[in-house]
């Protein structure tokens, strides 16, 4: 039987690597502009971290986690999202004892969720996220929203809209949850089994249900914005003032609750409007209680996560993918078998000078070497023949068909100048 990649996973092939590297380098650059440094956390964690952090009423915990027992009979889960691991690292390594705020980002982090694979949404995908600990002001949310918009626009994505909401703090949210129970009780018999279990335990999660039979009831549910306490309402108003000051258009959407239980106050999504229904490219929000909930000192936090596969899919749909560069800039061909050692040596010298060079490793004829080099390599150097006797090589531009002889001593500086845009001396 032919072995294939597991369902919901996808190989990144060498010819596509430059796309990932382009997106990743842009993400690193934007994160650095805002003072965020990289963190890398394990690909698996103790299951308890996600039960306590993400919430046992969420779809992630109830339906989507890859959980197993290790050889020590410990329950281990492949990371289903990035924030909980970052919080665990923040606590375990006592980063709260350093000057705050602590700004960190993770990149190319593999995330695992057992769900039906869709375009741009795989069972194993990769996320970029920015997390800030120790800052309670709404300016952090505004900063992250602007960072996200800057990133997405630099990647060529357009028609972006910001949707924001506040889901309050535990104090005001308790009143809202009771209002939701009263609203949903007459309808709960017609709703899905998952929503039935959520009614008493966490009715806020019902608003995140994707079942069509439930969505028709959630559309008319009470709004959290009518139940915010004074502090939460003030925080939300100040966030809007900051976004207005930066002339960032946004829409208040009281149905955004996000799919994780740790959020408090601000939640947001970046929506991409297209020919189909608006696509939520990414989302995030504030989680002021999560550090304390996981055993650390009470510390405010806010962050977001965005999938790289989804970004690349939308870049492709928007025709904003960058062109691939050359894999090899110069190919060193051996005229005969006796010239292969010299060709190999010259190749290594070119690489030592920082030039992307290659030579034949398949014992090809000279004609076959030219054919191989003709698949996108712009320049070729031919070692052997009369030129070799004169201490030189033959240079050929495979695009213009220009040919000339280059003394060996001039090869490195001439190719360096040529590849940097400086024409070599004739």
Q: Which architecture of the largest domain does the CATH hierarchy give at level 2?
A: 2-Layer Sandwich
Q: Please state the average pLDDT score.
A: 91
**Strands across the major sheet, in which order?**
1-5-6-11-10-9-7-8
Beta percentage is 15-25%
Radius of gyration: 28 Å
Features of this protein?
426 residues, alpha+beta, BirA Bifunctional Protein, domain 2, Rossmann fold, 2 domains, 8-stranded mixed sheet, 5-stranded mixed sheet, 15 helices, 16 strands
Task: Describe the structure concisely for a colleague.
The chain is α+β, with helices and mostly antiparallel strands. The chain contains 15 helices and 16 strands.
What is the topology?
Elements (H helix, E strand, L loop, with lengths): L16 H17 L3 E2 L5 E3 H7 L5 H6 L2 E3 L5 E4 L4 H10 L9 E11 L11 E10 L5 H16 L5 E7 L3 H15 L8 H9 L10 H7 L11 H16 L4 E3 L11 E9 L6 E8 L3 H4 L7 E7 H10 L12 E5 L5 H13 L4 E3 L6 H8 L5 E5 L1 H5 L2 E6 L5 E5 H12 L7
How would you describe what is shown here?
This protein is α+β, with helices and mostly antiparallel strands and 426 residues long. It folds into two domains: 14-169 and 229-317, 2-Layer Sandwich (BirA Bifunctional Protein, domain 2); 330-418, Rossmann fold (3-Layer(aba) Sandwich), CATH 3.40.50. It contains 15 helices and 16 strands. It has helices spanning 17-33, 47-53, 59-64, 83-92, 139-154, 170-184, 193-201, 212-218, 230-245, 290-293, 308-317, 340-352, 366-373, 385-389, 408-419, and strands spanning 37-38, 44-46, 67-69, 75-78, 102-112, 124-133, 160-166, 250-252, 264-272, 279-286, 301-307, 330-334, 357-359, 379-383, 392-397, 403-407. A hairpin with a 6-residue loop joins strand 9 and strand 10 (279-286).
